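User: I've been going back and forth on whether these two constructs are worth ordering. Before I decide, could you fold them both?

Assistant: Sure. I'll take them in the order you sent them. The first construct and its C-alpha cells:
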Amino acid sequence: MIHRLAHLLLLVALLGGWELACHLVPLPELVLPRPGRVAAVLAEELASGRLLRHLAVTAGEMVMGLAAGATFALPVGALLAESPALRRLAHPYLVASQVVPKLALAPLFLLWFGFGMRSIIVITALVCFFPLLENTVTGLGRVDASRLELFRMLRATRWQTLLRLRLPAGLPVILAGFRVAVVLALVGAVVGEFIMGREGLGAAVMAAQGMMDTALMFALLLAIAALGSAAYHGALLAERLILSERFDP
C-alpha cells in the first residue's frame, strides 16, 4: 500500500513539474504540450477507436514475434546447453548475428517478407531470440554437481535429466529471460512499425510526426509505455505463478 501511494505521489509530482515547466518556460505547444492537452488527445483517440486499433495491432505483432523467437530460442538453447562443443562452435556466430542492428536488416526483410506485419514479426522475433537463448543456456547449466552425478548413477537418459533436473533448476533464469524478452518484443514491434508498418503504435507515431502533432505523439508514447508495463507485469505474474507451482510443497 505504501509503495503504491509513493508511486502515485511521484506521478503527481512529475505531472505537476511538467505543467509548471510549460507555464514558466515559454515553449510553443509544438515543442512541449501541456499534460492536459495530451490527456485530451489521448481521450479523443480512445473514444474514436483509433488508439485501440493501433494497440491491438502492436500487441498482436509483439505476441507473435515473441512466440516465434521463443519457439527457436528455447530448443536451440537446450541443444547448446547439452553440447558444450557445439556451443563453443556456434556462440561466436550467434553473437555476431546480434551485434548487427536490426534496422540495418530492414531492407532485406522488405525484399524477403514484404511491407507489413510479416517483416515486423521477424524483426521482433530476432530481437527476442538472443536473450531467451542466453538465459536458456545459462539456466540449464545451473545444475548442482551432486544431483547431476546422482542422475548419472541412476542411469537417467539425457532427456530425463533435461526434463527432471536441468529444466526445473534453470526455470527461474529462463523465466527471467522471458520477462526481458517481453519488453524487447514491444521495442522490436514499434521500431519495425516505424519503417515497415501501415498500422500500429509505431506507424501512428510516424504519422503524428508527419502532421507535426506533438500532443498526439506524447499520447501515443504513453500508450506504448502502458502496453509495455502491462506486458511486463503480466510476465512477472506468470513467472511467480509458475515458480510457486513448481516449488510449493
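The second construct, handled the same way:
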Amino acid sequence: MRRLLSYAPDVTDLTSRPGENAAGPGRSDEGEWSLEALADAYAYPAEVVGAGRPWLRANMVSSLDGAARLDGLSEGLSSPADKRIFGVLRALADVILVGAQTVRAEGYRPARARAEFATERAARGQGPAPVIAVVSNSLDLDLTLPLFTSPLVPTVVVTAESAPADRLAAARRVADVVLAGPDHVDLARAVAALAERGWTRQLTEGGPRLLGQLAESDHLDELCLTLAPLLAAGDAPRIAHGSKSIAQRLELVGLLEEKGFLFARYARSVKIAQ
C-alpha cells in the first residue's frame, strides 16, 4: 500500500535516513499497513467526539464511472485492502447506520468483535462490537435474519411514529426501536438520538439512498471512498442518490493506493486529529 497523501502530515519526516520508514511504526508505503496503523490513520476527530458531539462518516466503494454496485452488489467492487479498511472503520465506530434496502440486498449480518481492537474499544468505553442501526420508514424487514436474532449487541431500528403498528410491535420484540419523526425518519433526530446514547463515533455504509438523504440534510461529516479501477457501465446507482442536487465541499485529507485501488478520505473543514 502506498500513501499518496498523508492522513497525518506531522508523522511524515521527509528528512528520515535511508532505510527508515517515514510513515511511522507499522506503516509501509510498499507493503500492507498494519491494523494499528490504519486505525491511527482513520481515527475520529478527538476534539469533536471528545466533546460529546457526533461525527458521522460514510464508507462507500465506487467504480471509475461512479457505479456503487456491480451485478447488484458492492462486493464486486471491493478488494482485500478495501475489506481491511472496512473492518477497521467498523472497529472504530460506536454505531453503524444502514438503510433497509441495503440490509435486504446485502444480507446484512451483525457486526463481530475483533480481538485486535478489544483493548482499545474497552478503553474508549465502547462495547465489544458496534451497534447496527437500521433506518426504515416502513419496517419492511426480515426479522428472522441473524442481524435481529443473534447479534452480539442489540440491533437498533430507527423508524417513524407512523410505521405500521404490527410491524412496530414485531420490531420491538427483536430490536431496540428509536422513533425519530412523526411521518418519516428525521435524520437530525436520528443522529441526535444515537449520540444521546453515547454513540458519537458514527458510521454509515449506505446505501445510496440513505447517503443521499444524509448529504441533503447536511449531516455527513466525512466520506471514506474506495475507488475501484473498474469501468462498470450498466444502470447501477451512484454512491449517493437523492431528490435534489447539492454542492457540499469536502476537503481531501488522505489518500492511499494499493493495486490500482484508491482509498480517499474527505472531511468537512474541521481539523482531523491523529
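Notes on the second construct follow. Strands lie at 2-5, 55-62, 95-99, 131-135, 156-159, 176-179, 201-204, 222-227, 251-258, 261-267. Residues 8-28 have pLDDT under 50 and may be disordered.
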